[in-house]
Amino acid sequence: MTLTKIQIVESIQNQTGFPKNKSSEIVEILLEIIKRTLASGDDVLVSGIGKFCVHKKKERKGRNPATGEDMMLAPRKVVAFKCSGKLRKRINGQ
């Protein structure tokens, strides 16, 4: 099962007593802050959860899977997540 944004909103609503629209606004603001920070090239560290890191990938040789044709893939940025030790232990039941 996957946790969805609406489920997060409902959980905040249930735990805080905030109305649904306020809970939704909180989630949207948080996600926008994270997206804006990553887009600027900075990392996002959430203590006890992990770190979202922006990595730069260089231009590289690739291939079109449909045609098999070789091509050069443009440089790009990707986001990676590194889990914290606390979260890893919790996931593994330690």
Mean residue pLDDT: 95
- What radius of gyration results from the CA coordinates? 19 Å
Largest sheet, if any? 3 strands, antiparallel
Shape: elongated
Q: Which stretches of 5+ consecutive residues score pLDDT under 50?
A: none
Strand content: 25-35%
Distance separating the two termini:
22 Å
Output the helix-strand order.
Answer: HHEEEEEH
Helix percentage: 40-55%
Number of helices: 3
Question: Which descriptors would you attach to this protein?
Answer:
single chain, 3-stranded antiparallel β-sheet, 3 helices, elongated, 94 residues
Summarize the structure.
This protein has 94 residues and is of the alpha+beta class. The protein is 41% helix and 29% strand.
Describe this structure in words.
- The chain is α+β, with helices and mostly antiparallel strands and 94 residues long.
- The protein is built from three helices and five strands; from the N terminus they run ααβββββα.
- It has a three-stranded antiparallel β-sheet with strand order 1-2-5. A two-stranded antiparallel ribbon has the order 3-4.
- Strand 3 and strand 4 form a beta hairpin.
- Helix 1 crosses helix 2.
- The mean pLDDT is 95.
